[in-house]
Amino acid sequence: MMAHLHSSKYQRNCILIAVSGVFCVSMVFAQTPRDFAVDMKAIVSSNTPRITLSWTQRQQSKIAAQKVYRRLKNSTGENWDLQASLASNATSYADTTAMYGVEYEYWMQRTFSGISPSPAIGYLSAGIDVPATENRGTLLLVIDNTMVAPLAAEITQLQTDLAGDGWTVQTLTALRTDTAANIKAQIKSAYTVDPAHVKMVYLLGHVPVPYSGNIAPDGHGDHVGAWPADGYYGDMDGTWTDSSVSNTVASRTNNDNIPGDGKFDQNYLPSAEELMVGRVDLHSMTRAPSVATTETMLLRRYLQKAHNFRHKQGPYATIPRRSVMRDGFGQFGSEAFAISGWSWMFSAVGTTVDEAPSGQWFSASYAGGKDYLVGYGNGGGSYESADTVGNTVDFGLKPSRAVFTSLFGSYFGDWDSANNFLRAPLAGNATTDSLGLTCFWGGRPARFMHHLGMGETVGFATMMSHNSHFWGVSYQPNSYSGVHCGLMGDPALRLHIVEAASKPEGLQRKHPDQPCMVRFNRDKSARLLCLSRGHKHRPLSTSPCGAAHRHHIYRHKRNRRFTLCLFRTHAEKGKRPRRDLL
User: Fold this and answer.
1) Cα separations in angstroms, 517 against 133, 401, 548
2) Domain range enclosing 51
3) Do 348 and 401 fall into the same domain?
4) Residue 37 falls within a domain, yes or no?
5) Over 350-371, what HEC string results?
6) Are 106 and 70 within 8 A, CB to CB?
7) Which of 500, 337, 467, 293 is nearest to 11 (CA)?
8) Does residue 474 have a pLDDT over 50?
9) 117 lies in the same domain as 141
10) Is 166 left (phi over 0), alpha (psi -120 to 50) or beta?
């Protein structure tokens, strides 16, 4: 039976298992979750095409085998191709068959003898001069009808930001009091018109929450029933029923599930998701910092934070490639919940990880005073807390300077409750120094976020984690498509942002035959190119700009209309620059 998520001062040596009662089993583990996450990195050579993978080893004496697999980046689970079977003490592999412009997904399958989980989690995305994504497809922005008017300015700003990142935005309005089935019908109608291009659903506000299943992923008997299931909005062809589950034992009435009540029967997604889904929903969050801060104010605060992040301004101007880890569970029987965090950090941020002691997440030495791109924390929980990490009040009153977060513990994975801990990082605080933009329940199952290292969205990585259950070979270990898996936050956000160019100023020509001149400020790693109608990109300048040369004037001799494009060096290694239209 699934173990309760229990935490105490004995948590690293003791787990609670329900058999015919609750008893404590003393277990001393030599290994830690960090041992089961491969810290793989890639060095890319573009002169002679080559991707060199390297890693360190822990529990080396227990490593039984190491194999490296590769496949093209895809969203349908294509087969893995074995590249090499390595010695158990090998710490690198050079892929000399990698091609320019192709993004690959690598899997280091490291298996162990005598310890678990096995295999370790070891995935990485990499490529050589991979083209930047210019057109990401259509994003369905589904807005709570009560927020359309009060957030009109912020929504317009959001739409502009999304368009600037390559999205075509289609807006849908959802009645707050409607049913999930009716909202799904709107989404499916938009998808059916253009299935090749509709890719993502962004739920803004308290859009009706689907519930499904007869489950308790946290292992608590008083929590068995239907859980929030936003994956319902991303599944365009699965069969969802409401006829078989009949259970009203949960202590929270929202978890009750009986036939015909609008809550579904499925414990797992019935088919793979076609659409990425994320939700920014801050209803009933009255501790950020108090009930005087309305839901509208919280949403406005969040949208401004996301805008600042996308433009690298304010507190998001200089976020370092650094992560923070607080693992309150450690090794939990055969489970190692924190491998979701460790692997995300290694594959998308780097190996600089601060390990916060118990109760120190919000201290000045960690997320209370230092900026982090990714943060992970777990511990025995309630709807509003995780032991050793903190509680919802902490997020409402103190700084938490981790931008992308994952939290795990009992109860709060059921995120539709009031003052829910999983949504607390998004609500933030009133002093604007709480930087959280996304959060998910990472531990049951594991999440696989390595695509973020090559510029993908958090929505894409989340969907791949869910969908791998339907592939011939799923991500390993602990991968399954539970309906409870969801993403709190803007699903279109990407981990690594490059500062946008300033708006250019056209200088008036005194004569039509004179060169056109444009003045603007740009990032020091940018390159300026010109896109003329009917012509290929032609470089005007190929030298980077130092701090002393941020102000630029360029001339264009063609006596016609043209568009200037600033190509910015992409933050993800192996990616070609992305383009800013000026």
Assistant:
1) 29, 42, 20
2) 33-127
3) yes
4) yes
5) CCCEEECCCCCCCCCCCCCCCC
6) yes
7) 337
8) yes
9) no
10) left
**Residue 576 counted as domain residue:** yes
Other CB atoms closer than 10 Å to residue 317's CB: what's the count? 12
Q: Is residue 168 part of a domain?
A: yes
Verify cis geometry, omega within 30 degrees of 0, for the bond prior to 512. Answer: no
| Cα–Cα nearest to 420, from 411, 412, 428 | 412
pLDDT in tens, 191-249: 999 999 999 999 999 999 999 999 999 999 999 999 999 999 999 999 999 999 999 99
d(CA 457, CA 11): 35
Neighbours of 169 (CB within 10 A): 18
Q: Are residues 463 and 575 in the same domain?
A: no
Q: Is residue 361 part of a domain?
A: yes
CA pair distance 270, 280, nearest whole angstrom: 25
- DSSP three-state, residue 44: strand
Three-state helix/strand/coil letters over 103-166: EEEEEEEEEECCCCCCCCECEEEEEECECCCCCCEEEEEEEEHHHCCCCHHHHHHHHHHHHHCC
Q: Work out the widest C-alpha separation in the chain, in whole angstroms.
A: 91
- Domain of residue 145, CATH code: 3.40.50.10860
Q: What is the pTM of this model?
A: 0.87
Number of domains in the chain: 4
State the CATH number of the domain containing residue 458: 3.40.50
pLDDT tens-place string over residues 351-371: 999 999 999 999 999 999 999
Verify that 460 and 337 share a domain, yes or no: yes
Length of the chain: 582
**Cβ-based neighbours of 383, under 8 Å, separated by 6 or more:** 411, 412, 414, 417, 418, 419, 420, 421
